[in-house]
């Protein structure tokens, strides 16, 4: 069975391929489609953006399609960057610039007020317009400087207290087990495996 994962983010594709390793599901990335449409993520929630991406790409490709929208929600910033996480510092979606902006916004925030959570909503859409959503989150703290070289986005600043490491320092196995995306994907995997066996 082919499953289109509607992302150009190679880090996300790597995580999803790892989770579905050994199954009869062939992961197709957007880079394998001819001229896929650009989906404008104009929703005000992670759910709205994930559903829009999954449905538009399922209709375009004719494949069962998985899409997600995820981001960092920082308590002291009233939930920012939220749905704007990827373009927090501007439309170019530059990780380094986004991290610098977050550090600037958090400058002066005391250690006991640096709580945050990564949120993820995964949408699974069929070409006929059906769509189901699954969510996950992981809580942590925002550091004052980056640590770790693995991962992407805000991973180097996001400390997971029970491991004493950022999500950029954790192994892919542990990250997949505890991450917001890993949690959401594990909820959809039983359905994907069932569909692949039909």
Please describe what this structure looks like.
Helix 4 (172-178) packs across helix 5 (180-197). The longest helix is centred in the last third of the chain and has 18 residues, at 180-197. The protein has one domain: Maf protein (Alpha-Beta Complex). A hairpin with a 5-residue loop joins strand 4 (115-125) and strand 5 (131-142). The chain is globular, with a radius of gyration of 17 Å. It starts with a strand and ends with a helix. It contains five helices and seven strands. With 198 residues, it is an alpha/beta fold. Strands 2-1-3-4-5-6-7 form a seven-stranded mixed sheet. The chain has helices at 10-19, 46-61, 95-105, 172-178, 180-197; strands at 2-5, 26-29, 64-74, 115-125, 131-142, 158-160, 165-166.
Question: Quick summary of this structure?
Answer:
The protein is an alpha/beta fold and 198 residues long. The chain is 31% helix and 24% strand.
SSE layout and pairing:
Blueprint: E1 2-5, H1 10-19, E2 26-29, H2 46-61, E3 64-74, H3 95-105, E4 115-125, E5 131-142, E6 158-160, E7 165-166, H4 172-178, H5 180-197
Parallel strand pairs: 1-2, 1-3
Antiparallel strand pairs: 3-4, 4-5, 5-6, 6-7
Helix pairs in contact: 4-5
Give the overall shape, derived from the CA principal axes.
Answer: globular
> Which residues form runs of ≥5 with pLDDT under 50?
none
CATH topology: Maf protein
Which architecture name does CATH use?
Alpha-Beta Complex
Write out the strand line-up for the largest beta sheet, numbering strands in chain order: 2-1-3-4-5-6-7
Major sheet summary line: 7 strands, mixed
The helix-strand sequence is: EHEHEHEEEEHH
**What's the CATH class, please?**
Alpha Beta
The secondary structure category is alpha/beta
Strand residue percentage? 15-25%
